[in-house]
Write a structure and sequence with these properties.
The chain has about 300 residues and is mainly alpha-helical. The relative contact order is 0.05. It has 3 domains: about 70 residues; about 80 residues; about 110 residues, LysM domain (Membrane-bound Lytic Murein Transglycosylase D, Chain A, Roll), CATH 3.10.350. It is about 60% helix and about 5% strand. The protein is elongated and about 120 Å long.
């Protein structure tokens, strides 16, 4: 009984090797150790694999002829498509009025915009916002070039698409870098007055907000009814965190300004935040600079 079990175990170990679809080749010493029946199985497997390989070789040869024919057909098709592409491509360039000689300058402009965007992206938010005018000029320059005939050349479509994304991301980064309070500038032109400027859509779109502009420019505008062409004035954006006191102001008046709290009764907030400067809330002086607490 034990002999039967041992023989069965040996068979279990050997037969899978012999029955595998891919023969495990034995060296001379391994082959000599096989019993007669095992050798027959081994040779049977070898013959089966040889037959299988011969069949695969025959199939490969047959397919090779078929694929060679197909490859020739595809090459002819590729040549035809290339010729059609060349005709269409030349037609597009002729329509745009662009030549192959212009390609170098187009690539140069693409490289220029890529380098500029990379330089701006390497700045901190504070540095980027400080350079916002230059950044916006670059965006405007790119948008103008993007509408030119050179940007419509199909050979550069992928590069311009990539630049479109980079420029959009730069604009988003600039917007995110915007502080809660900052000041734009505006150059006065003939025919302007403060309420008119305030009413411009790119300023406040509200003519009633002209006092905000006046208060931000009291160092150069002494009379709100007298402004002059070419004066460069500040346009406050957001709510300031500091306030410079001018003659005639008091805490409740400062608190009443819409750019401060828009509510005179909140003057104690300013007083409590500036007790180191204000000994008596009824006595404040020109040129003092107060902190304006914000939530």
């Amino acid at each position: 009984m034990k002999k039967i079990i041992i023989i069965s175990i040996v068979a279990v170990l050997i037969i899978p090797v012999i029955l595998q679809s891919k023969v495990v080749y034995l060296n001379e010493e391994e082959y000599k150790k096989l019993k007669k029946k095992e050798r027959l199985h081994y040779w049977e497997n070898l013959e089966n694999e040889l037959a299988d390989n011969q069949m695969r070789k025959a199939d490969a040869l047959a397919n090779s002829e078929k694929y060679s024919t197909r490859i020739d057909e595809l090459r002819k098709e590729l040549n035809r498509v290339d010729n059609e592409y060349d005709v269409v491509h030349k037609g597009i360039l002729d329509y745009l009025g662009v030549t192959q000689g212009d390609f170098a300058s187009i690539q140069e402009r693409i490289n220029y915009f890529n380098n500029e965007v990379t330089n701006w992206n390497n700045l901190s938010d504070k540095e980027l916002w400080k350079a916002k005018k230059s950044v916006r000029e670059l965006v405007a320059e790119y948008n103008e070039y993007r509408q030119s005939k050179y940007a419509k050349v199909p050979d550069f479509r992928a590069e311009f698409s990539d630049l479109d994304n980079k420029i959009a991301n730069l604009e988003s980064t600039l917007e995110a870098a915007k502080p809660k309070y900052y000041e734009d500038t505006y150059t006065i032109v003939r025919g302007d007055w403060l309420s008119k400027i305030s009413g411009y859509s790119f300023i406040y779109d509200d003519y009633k907000k002209w006092p905000i502009i006046f208060r931000a420019n009291r160092d150069i505008i002494k009379d709100p009814n007298l402004i002059y062409p070419n004066q460069i004035i500040k346009i406050p954006r957001g709510l300031p965190n500091a306030w410079k006191v001018y003659k005639g102001e008091c805490l409740w008046r400062i608190a009443s300004y819409p750019e401060v709290y828009g509510n005179a009764v909140q003057w104690p907030l300013i007083y409590r935040a500036n007790k180191d400067q204000i000994k008596d809330p009824d006595l404040i002086y020109p040129n003092q600079i107060f902190e304006i607490p914000r939530d």
